[in-house]
Amino acid sequence: MKTAISIPDGVFQAAERLARRLRVSRSELYAKAVSVFVQQHDETRITDRLDEVYAVEDASVDSLVSRLQALSIQPEEW
Predict the structure, then answer these.
(1) Residue 58's domain spans which residues?
(2) What average pLDDT does the chain have?
(3) Most exposed: 6, 7, 26, 71, by fewest CB within 10 Å?
(4) Is residue 1 part of a domain?
């Protein structure tokens, strides 16, 4: 799909240099950049990744740690 966008001159010039260095067209560079940006901001993907990370970790607290934490809390009057 074709689209027209406005970007600051400095960003445009940096993108032109990068496209030349990577030997890709401007269109390909922008398409890749937008794709990466969208992936990084996809909340569903972030949640899925966090679920993967926490699925392999043991969520239980060691009983010794639990007792030590309880002992470290000073009694307080309300």
Answers:
(1) 9-72
(2) 88
(3) 6
(4) no
